[in-house]
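Researcher: I'd like a structural prediction for the single chain below. Treat it as a standalone chain; there are no partners to consider.
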Amino acid sequence: MPVITNIEDLRALAEKRVPRMFYDYADSGSWTESTYRANESDFQPIKLRQRVAVNMENRTTAVQMVGIDTKMPVAIAPVGLTGMQHADGEMHAARAAQKFGIPFTLSTMSICSIEDIAGYTKSPFWFQLYMMRDRDAMARMIERCKAAHCSALVLTLDLQVIGQRHKDLKNGLTAPPRPTLKNIVNLMTKPRWCLGMAATKRRSFGNLVGHVKGVSDMSSLAAWTNEQFDPRLSWPDVEWVKRQWGGKLILKGIMDVEDAKLAVESGADAIIVSNHGGRQLDGADSSIRALPAIVEAVGKHIEVHVDGGIRSGQDVLKAWALGARGTYIGRAMVYGLGAMGEAGVTKALEIIHKELDVTMAFCGHTNIRNVDKSILLPGSFPG
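Model: Treating it as a single chain, here is the predicted structure.
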């Protein structure tokens, strides 16, 4: 087993262990992938101010996200097909998050179902919902979230239409994978993955198959998905979801100040500055560059979180310094899961937390709540 020191180590190991189509699904963006790459690279120019002769004992990174205690300002982002990175993947990631003390967000397009996660963990989790044409199906899914005691609902706003991801088309992405010659040859090189999948019954979209009218197998599910993402989504629809849910509501996919202001007017509890991991509008700004203007415009009125490109604890600290009151990790979690299962997710969280804690100390702080943009080198950050 190689020594794991950073998220890149987990990524490299996941690439070796996860079938190509599922690795590419997680590790890719839309069209030229420029926004996907910028999400990560735009953190690099932001420089930190090192301070010395400061008492660094008794440090804490603990905060609250939408009123929920968390060990650090990090939640696991919703990622579709997580259960194809590792058998029962969402269940393992959720339990790792629970043990570590951070929120876990389950995707609508997950392999494991809402009920699977509720039965496998003790602490309440968050659920991510897509706006679909079938309002009855959405209402039933919201009721299932209530029954599972989900503590927040994350409504994704930026998937009215789907951006083209070239790798998914070339790989012929399906769950489970089609038995083509190319796939069979690739699967023969992934014995660990194959053994895990052989031992689980969860190989399809658990939140949809058997729960949504007209969806009983993968062939009908593909057609249903293409038809169901609602291009007519508008702010009255957000209000409808809020009424149906009645609990903490987080809006994901805000990249513009005007949309952030409308989100405040909708009565949401938080927004996530996010470009869907660079998987939707290629050529959009990176999340970290979009963050400061949105914080400036609405940060006093709503809790602002950020998602996209976070691969280290330093990234988390930089985002917090720029006004984000929560961050999300998707690919970092997926790399850990694909590399080592639940232990890999835990390792990813440990790496990020340690980097966050030590970097905060180098910057002269012992409590992350006291950190602001004064820790950043003037002229090196956006906004």
